[in-house]
């Protein structure tokens, strides 16, 4: 049994590890285009910002460690083609330039996503970056070391916001350009987006929304600015962070069905519509347990979990991906933001009759030294009380309490259940009535 | 309708507020023995330790605020007797010394607990304290202001541990005496108790366990030390923190049934066995949703919640107390500890076949600057996987994730459910696989 994995990051390495563990007699081979495997891409802004020592620290497992487990790791090998009938891959060794055929019995497509690169002028100029893989981070670091002083970030999503913080920490002036009227995309309700904007501006970032980029300017092959419909923004470092697209070229070659999102459609065992071909990770759709729709939400935990499921199944086991509930968390300067479930726009699109409350409270006992404000928006279905979602803004770890709502969403719990929970209280950790209980109590009264 | 509440702290004031809100036409009167109402007793060690400015900051609502809501608040009034047939109380005005009769239609006993005062010599000497109410805290503050330098704390439970930290922060030498072999009583498993001891000792506290106190020594009416079976411990401040007992004198007079714990037995609506008499708060048992036994766990959230339930019901509404799952959290120096559900001793006593795992991980991404170790012990029932309990040790807010387990315990969830949760991940908040997911994954494999 030869199990072949394309892509050696979160889903791919999780799959390889689990497959080998489940069936030690199988041959497991991973082809990875870069020199890095199994790294935490989410950590890239923190290396650049200085909270993490170096890029190597992001690598959870080294190729040597994986090889010691009996997993074949082929770095700098790019898979160019697939023949799902012959069950072979066309693989190019990027070091030698040689191309060869590789057979498989079970194939996992763990090819992730790639940053969108708009067809702007001078996208290839020095100082123009995307951020997805470790080499992208290294390139940004080189531009910083080269003396960059003025950054323009195009795109106000997670990556744009986290990099605004990192680049401010490195002492650059930062202009953040966003085509939409708000930052943070559609993952949060408009009021939360406005608070994010206020925090980012408070930290000295020049935020310009509703601005369309027309192209980049360059001189002698180096970027000099961003041309927008509202004028030129001078910059010697440009980060293009306008979203990601699932890498589905191989999937298309294999004749695998894609979902409406453009990502790969699988069943709960991570099987595609083509025999012997599996998919897992950021290139793959998941089922949202609250909306019961297929969605494309490329995040680290789901990618790792899909990989494990695929690995077990490819090796003859039986595992199922449980779906997601839309949980996400991020930090931008001194503001921590978390969400789970459905946003206001989601519930509207689904035609759900949602009721919501907004509660402001304190993350620790109000009288306690380190108490900070925390805000919760909680949403449930009118009539039934079924929880639909939550959004939290606060400081530090306080918004990690979103996990309580995620736990209830997983089991289709009701706001009445949330209101009754025996949550942990002591002054250094919470108010007597944790903000979630306050929100649930008020929302229960409106159901 | 005259609703009378005995005791104006957590349960009592919650009940009064809810009763008045539910039936604004009712007369609601609260008798409180001290001059303080509605205060967070859990905050007392933090006032003494300096994290909270003053005792008044602990008062969530002032008497004036409650009166403005139409609630009669009678401070320094002690209820001495009750006649449940005539529905009258004997009340002494501590200021004037006068005693009178007060009628009621519905009576709530929210009398809380009192510290146990062993029959030791010199318990009344100056410098000997308990800590339960604000006047206790003020008395300790006076001893500190009087120049106390050497503290002996008798009892290594929550209060003893929190006060060890507070008194160290105030610069005192601290000896902590405990009769049992470990600190932190029975709420945690033995391994966690040992870690607490190590942390307390690391902070310069002289911990002596397995020591029996025989009496206190005093000179000229001031305490000078604690006589133990292992010698004399010199001290000019002695805190006696050897547990609490429910205040049930009035309940006994009224003929109310007590539970096996010695606290008051009520139904889920907080009704006692005597018509027109209700009970709520630390003096009252609750149903443990995991063991389905009646337990006496005097903690702030349950007290407040029972008070609300009683208040609504006394005013003609219909509310039910949902029970507890045994969640508790506390901080001792740089160690944060949380638990929920059943301990190893609990499951053994109940004859449950429990399987457990211990997992050590990192509270944030391991490579992230502020990452600290976190340990989780997770316990479930063999065969079914029903979650039984968890115990967390870590730093700062990290152990507040105990709430996720508490949420599942509330609904009799399984460890398999926990393993599948979509918990929030970003490097500043968690590892990709949150420590709870790691523990649940390993435990699932053992079920």
Automatic annotation (TrEMBL), chains A, B:
Required cofactor(s): FAD
FAD/NAD(P)-binding domain ranges (all copies): 1-286
Residues annotated as domain Pyridine nucleotide-disulphide oxidoreductase dimerisation: 329-431
Pfam families given in the database record: Pyr_redox_2, Pyr_redox_dim
Key words of the record: FAD, Flavoprotein, Oxidoreductase, Redox-active center
Coiled-coil residue spans: none
InterPro entries in alphabetical order: FAD-bd_OxRdtase (IPR050260), FAD/NAD-bd_sf (IPR036188), FAD/NAD-binding_dom (IPR023753), FAD/NAD-linked_Rdtase_dimer_sf (IPR016156), Pyr_nucl-diS_OxRdtase_dimer (IPR004099)
PANTHER family linked: NAD(P)H SULFUR OXIDOREDUCTASE (COA-DEPENDENT) (PTHR43429:SF1), PYRIDINE NUCLEOTIDE-DISULFIDE OXIDOREDUCTASE DOMAIN-CONTAINING (PTHR43429)
Family: Belongs to the class-III pyridine nucleotide-disulfide oxidoreductase family.
The protein, known as: FAD-dependent oxidoreductase
Species assigned in the record: Deinococcus sonorensis
Species lineage: Bacteria, Thermotogati, Deinococcota, Deinococci, Deinococcales
């Amino acid at each position: 049994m030869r199990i072949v994995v394309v892509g050696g990051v979160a889903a791919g390495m999780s799959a390889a590890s689990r497959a080998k563990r489940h069936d030690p007699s199988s041959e497991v081979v991973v082809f990875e285009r870069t020199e890095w495997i199994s790294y935490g891409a989410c950590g890239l802004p923190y290396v650049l910002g200085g909270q993490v020592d170096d890029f190597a620290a992001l690598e959870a497992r080294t190729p040597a460690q994986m090889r010691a487990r009996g997993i074949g790791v082929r770095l700098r090998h790019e898979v160019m083609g697939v023949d799902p009938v012959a069950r072979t891959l066309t693989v190019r060794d990027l070091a030698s330039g040689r191309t060869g055929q590789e057979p498989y019995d079970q194939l996992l497509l763990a090819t992730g996503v790639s940053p969108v690169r708009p067809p702007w002028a001078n996208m290839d100029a020095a100082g123009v970056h995307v951020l997805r893989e470790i080499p992208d981070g290294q390139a940004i670091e080189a531009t910083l070391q080269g003396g960059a002083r003025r950054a323009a970030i195009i795109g106000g999503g997670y990556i744009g916001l986290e990099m605004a913080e990192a680049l401010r920490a490195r002492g650059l002036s930062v202009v953040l350009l966003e085509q939409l009227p708000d930052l943070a995309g559609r993952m949060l309700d408009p009021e939360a987006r406005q608070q994010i904007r206020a925090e980012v501006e408070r930290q000295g970032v020049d935020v310009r929304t509703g601005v369309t980029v027309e192209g980049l300017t360059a001189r002698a092959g180096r970027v000099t600015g961003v041309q927008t419909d509202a004028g030129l923004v001078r910059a010697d470092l440009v980060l293009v962070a306008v979203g990601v697209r699932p890498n589905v070229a191989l999937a298309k070659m294999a004749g695998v069905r894609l979902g409406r999102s453009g990502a790969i459609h699988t069943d709960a065992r991570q099987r595609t519509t083509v025999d012997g071909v599996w998919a897992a990770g950021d290139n793959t759709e998941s089922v949202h347990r609250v909306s019961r729709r297929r969605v494309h939400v490329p995040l680290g935990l789901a990618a790792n979990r899909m990989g494990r499921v695929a690995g077990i199944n490819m090796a003859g086991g039986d595992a199922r991906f449980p779906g997601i509930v839309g949980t996400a968390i991020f930090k931008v300067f001194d503001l921590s933001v978390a969400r789970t479930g459905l946003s206001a726009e989601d519930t509207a699109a689904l035609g759900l009759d949602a009721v919501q409350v907004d509660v402001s409270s304190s993350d620790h006992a109000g009288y306690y030294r380190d108490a900070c404000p925390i805000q919760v928006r909680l949403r449930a279905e009118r009539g039934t009380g079924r929880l639909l979602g939550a959004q939290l803004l606060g400081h530090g770890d306080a918004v990690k309490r979103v996990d309580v709502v995620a736990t209830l969403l997983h089991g289709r719990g009701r706001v009445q259940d949330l209101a009754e929970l025996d949550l942990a209280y002591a002054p250094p950790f919470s108010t007597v009535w944790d903000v979630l209980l306050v929100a649930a109590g008020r929302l229960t009264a409106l159901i």
